[in-house]
Amino acid sequence: MLNETIKRIFGHIEGFRIFRAPGRVNLIGEHTDYHYGFVLPVSIDRYFYFCIKENNLNKFRIYSDNFKELYEFDFNSLKYNPEKLWINYLKGVINEIIKLKGKIPYFDALIYGDIPMGSGLSSSAAYEVAVAFGMNTYFNLGIDKKEIAKLSQRAENNFVGAPCGIMDQFIATFGKENTALFIDTLTLDFENVPFDLNKRNLKLVVVDTKIKHSIAGEGYSTRRREGEEALKILRKYLPINSLRDLNDETFKISQEFLPSPLKERVAHVYNENKRVVDFVNDIKRDNWESLPKYMLDSHLSLKYLYEVTCEELDFLVEKALEYGAFASRMTGGGFGGSTVNLVHQDTLDKWSDNISKSYREKFGFDPGILLLNISDGVREI
Ligand code: GLA
Predict the structure, then answer these.
(1) Fewer CB within 10 A of the terminal residue: the chain, N end or C end?
(2) What average pLDDT does the segment 182-190 reach?
(3) Separation of CA 320 from chain center
(4) What residue's CA is closest to ligand 1, atom 9?
(5) 210 touches 57 (CB < 8 A)
(6) Given ligand 1 and candidates 164, 224, 302, which is best to mutate, with the most ligand atoms within 8 Å of its CB?
(7) pLDDT tens by residue, 26-45
(8) Using CA atoms, how far apart are residues 34 and 231, in angstroms rounded to an integer?
(9) pLDDT classification of 161: cutoffs 50, 70, 90
(10) Shortest-distance atom of ligand 1 to CA 122
């Protein structure tokens, strides 16, 4: 399908190389990455594709198969385009690559993604990583994979303007089939933790609220600001560089003198980091019985302490468990977006019907339901 479109738009397919990067679902460790804490995401079998070929034309020609638009630009027009938002991720990546390696040759590219946009599955990180990895490989730039993840995050922070952490770009780069990635977002050390759902007769299911609260961007940056404010206060008294450095003792002290809501925000981050470590240890010990509780505790902490859930997310988690899911919680940034569910395979159809029906009755429209597999990170296909 991609080949046909390339041929139709650019006249031929010879010489095009195709790269793809996955979306992600975070199992646990939410709103911890920009506090340099721990996260445990998986990469999913929904992808962003980047097909590239050098063109010797003195301009980039980029066709978005999602938007059915061709966009051309050159190095003089490498600035943010408020009217064509989809091009900015690619421009942002080119911008970061130039900073590292100087100008690259002009090229033709087709881009396409089947990760639903705005549903909290990190389609934008997959986009950035596919493009960064693709350009790096195609032009032999010699940028290592950790730097691919980091420059993709910088493209999002500096060019697109979203102050995200490193989790999404990192998992899109390093994800592995049937494996969860335990990432220390301070050191960027990571560990592949085998997470074979088939063995447990479970399925990874994402339920999309289909809503994007208008406060989304603002809510996320407000949380980041609150974290920084809390850190500033704490650093006057405690020897820490980030909230991640709190230990039992310093955490207790923080709870005594921080005002609300900073105190609650810090409590979420502190406990969530612990939950990630416990979750990973229990998977390694093959002790899956404890996982649902960690996930529910995470959700409740995001609801009451970090305040990033919404009525629709809370409803979906409550119903998911009521209808017999093994585990459920919100995933991603929150304020809308999706829940992650581990559902027994033999109850899947009935469970999905029940969820859709009760969501429709309550909110008047259907949620999106996606059955997913844990897949590999970015690569050439
Ligand atoms: C978004 C950001 C991530 C992370 C999550 C919350 O997905 O892009 O960096 O902060 O929210 O865990």
Answers:
(1) N
(2) 98
(3) 22
(4) 165
(5) no
(6) 164
(7) 999 999 999 999 999 999 99
(8) 12
(9) confident
(10) 7
pTM over 0.90: yes
CA 83 / ligand 1 centre spacing (Å): 25
Q: List the residue whose alpha carbon is closest to atom 11 of ligand 1.
A: 333
**Amino acid at position 357, single letter:** K
Distance CA(185)–CA(102), nearest Å, equals 28
Q: Can you tell me the distance from the alpha carbon of 11 to that of 313, in angstroms, rounded to the nearest whole number?
A: 46
Which residue type does 263 have? K
Classify strands 17-28 and 379-380 as parallel, antiparallel or unpaired.
antiparallel
Ligand 1 interacting residues, C-beta cut-off 6 A: 30-31, 33-34, 122, 164-165, 167-168, 332-333
Mean pLDDT of the chain: 96
Which residues participate in catalysis according to the annotation? 168
Rounded distance from Cα 239 to ligand 1 centre (Å) = 26
CA gap 308, 349 in Å, rounded: 30
* pLDDT at 70 (0 to 100): 98
pLDDT tens digit sequence for 254-313: 999 999 999 999 999 999 999 999 999 999 999 999 999 999 999 999 999 999 999 999
* Angle, alpha carbons 370-113-349 (nearest 5°): 10
The whole-angstrom separation of Cα 88 and Cα 79 is 8
- From the CA of 31, give the closest atom in ligand 1: 12
DSSP 3-state of 63: strand
One-letter amino acid at 245 equals D
Tell me, what amino acid is at 291? L
DSSP 48: E
From 31, 188, 275, 340, the mutation candidate for ligand 1 (largest count of ligand atoms within 8 A of CB) is 31
